[in-house]
Write a structure and sequence with these properties.
The protein starts with 6 loop residues before the first helix and ends with a helix. The chain has 14 helices and eight strands. Helix 4 runs parallel beside helix 5. The chain is an alpha/beta fold. It comes from Bradyrhizobium ottawaense. This is 2-Methylisocitrate lyase, PEP mutase family.
Length: about 290
């Protein structure tokens, strides 16, 4: 479960909050152990790790909700969870927001793409009519349990209709009650600055994807522009996939995983990360450890 510190209180501090993308129990535990103040459940990472397919609208609400529960159970940090398009119409958005909040998320990201949606740094994205998108944000705001559950309103209109349209949509989302504005994939530093200058005083999120469409900046650079959240959703799963490729290739070639260029966590450290000390303490407390010796 998330700790008492809320995302809203974290965002009231100076600077830009760094949110790493997590996608399963291991990544959530590692990010928590490193000391991040908050996390982000990446839809791309969840779909890739849980289903082994592209982030192209194939995941269902129940599949994503299950992963929200996993991450909430594996960490004690507040986190924003990717809610895609809300998995349907307005009733679905209502159910999605209530479900994510009940499962332990501290906020939800909702986007205005047509279904089936796609990763925000890929091709052929289209957006729904503006009034329909605004209605989804209004429903989300009404469905949340309290104001500490943040509604992150994302628009993909920069790709589909241009920056002017994206800014108009973001303004309407803000008027509808969104807490955080997320204009996906600006394609230059000038466009990032335009977003920040247009919405001075608002909580702005910038999505930093290695190899993506947006110039890749640090959180200190984003803070100097006026952004409050720097999202790094792909860093974890890109690194994990790269390390797996190295170690599996080495194992296939040599018949052994030792000596691979991929960094490998010692088994004892992995046991600690996953909570085995608590398991052993439990067994000792209830006499289970002694029974193993008989």
């Amino acid at each position: 479960m998330a700790e008492a510190t809320t995302l809203r209180s974290l965002l009231s501090r100076q600077g830009c909050l760094t949110l790493p993308g997590v996608f399963d129990g291991i990544s959530a535990r590692v990010a928590t152990s490193i000391g991040f103040d908050a996390l982000y459940m990446t839809g791309y990472g969840v779909v890739a790790s849980a289903l082994g397919v592209a982030d192209a609208g194939t995941a269902t609400f129940t599949e994503m909700l299950d992963r929200v529960r996993v991450i909430a159970g594996a960490c004690n940090k507040p986190f924003i969870a990717d809610g895609d398009t809300g998995y349907g119409g307005l009733l679905n958005v209502d159910r999605t927001v209530r479900g994510y909040a009940s499962a332990g998320a501290s906020g939800i990201q909702l986007e205005d793409q047509e279904f089936p949606k796609k990763c925000g740094h890929t091709e052929f994205r289209r957006v729904i009519p503006l009034e329909d998108a605004v209605a989804k944000i209004r429903v989300a705001v009404d469905a949340r349990p309290d104001r500490n559950f943040l509604i992150v309103a994302r628009t993909d209109a920069r790709y589909a209709e241009g920056m002017d349209a994206a800014l108009r949509r973001a303004e309407r989302f803000l008027q509808a009650g969104a807490d955080v504005l997320f204009i996906e994939s600006p394609e230059s530093l000038e466009e990032l600055r335009r977003v920040a200058e247009t919405f001075k005083g608002a909580i702005l999120l910038a999505n930093m994807v290695e190899g993506g469409r947006t110039p890749y900046l640090s959180t200190s650079e984003l803070a100097s522009m006026g952004f409050k959240i720097g999202l790094y959703p792909a860093s974890g799963f890109l690194t994990a996939a790269g390390a797996l490729r190295l170690v599996y290739r080495h194992l296939k070639t040599t018949g052994s995983a030792t000596g691979s260029e991929a960094p490998m966590l010692p088994f004892t450290d992995m046991n600690t990360l996953m909570g085995f000390p608590a398991v052993h303490a439990f067994e000792k407390r209830y006499g289970l450890a002694d029974s193993h010796k008989k």
